[in-house]
Amino acid sequence: MNKKALKKLITKLCKMNGISGDESEIAEFTCEKLKKYCPDARIENGNVIGTLGNQNPNAWHVLLDAHLDQIGLIVTSITEDGFITVGNIGGLDRRWFPAQRVIIHGKKNISGIICTLPPHLTNGEEKVQKIEQVRIDTGYSAQELKEIISIGDSVTFCGITQELAGGRFTSPALDDRAGIASVLYALDEIWQEDIGCKVTVLFSAKEEVNGYGAKVGCFAINPDIALAIDVSFAGDGKLSKTGVSGNGVMIGFSPALSKDLSHELANDAIDAKIPYQYEVMNGRTGTNADDFSICRDGVETGVLSIPIDYMHTPVEVVDLNDIKHTGKLLAEFLRRCCE
Fold first, then answer.
1. Marked catalytic residue, from 28, 144, 207, 279
2. Tens digits of per-residue pLDDT, 86-124?
3. How many CA within 13 A on the CB side of residue 322?
4. Which of 126, 122, 128, 132 is nearest to 93 (CA)?
5. Measured in whole angstroms, how far is the alpha carbon of residue 28 from the centre of its chain?
6. What angle do CA 55, 325, 250 make, to 5 degrees?
7. Global pTM value
8. Residue of 2, 91, 179, 221 with fewest CB within 10 Å of its CB?
């Protein structure tokens, strides 16, 4: 997969709707993409699952996971004066809410604006609103809204999806559509090769709300090895728990992970001359790996992360080369792990 194809793929992935619990659009899209490599690709319990490689029941079984869902909001009520109230889905920073454009996914998609006071009326002293105080203005009356919108409908944040200078790329939902893109990149590299292990791909639902999709998915799949592919904090590399965007895939080291597996991934990166960096965590990883490692009687688990700036905002930014290098390391690991 060349850079042009990768950019086209990540653009399409990021434009699909799919907040936690409402992932059907992104699930259907990724399921169709996965069928090229995994003819048995299907949607189960909101997850997308497909297999390839050695189908011998005695072969080593490797799970590759990236989550489908994105952060967003959920409609909680329509006020008498025609505003929409909401609750949050996933971890959201309300500091950037005022004046944001949103889309409410009802019987049809409608646009809205999160209300804000002009600075002339606040003297720069307006406090961050509680989620219960947030209001969305659509221009519709309350009666008109009730014909289109229902309690429980999802709300997504708008943002520009485009390439930036220096190979950077910005969009909402790069967490974790970048991870999905890296898995598809890896499959594109190895799907016609003779892979010694069985590979199951899990594009999991509901990661942003406690990883429900990963829990049921891993239990059903029952792998020997599980790799969670997600995003992690980019920065200057000096801050704790941050990497550097453009410096390659982040390999997780944590007491919640298999240390041997983490070292194997680092050695594969060295042997294949794939840029990588360490991500050291002193406890849980905050990814689906935390659930994989304790699934059934335990699964040997690792984490690969793509550095991301401005996580959980409508302007997330990644380096396209980091997606590519993550995919290349996955492909290299699959080639070697069952030798």
1. 207
2. 999 999 989 889 899 999 999 999 999 999 877 666 666
3. 33
4. 128
5. 16
6. 95
7. 0.94
8. 2
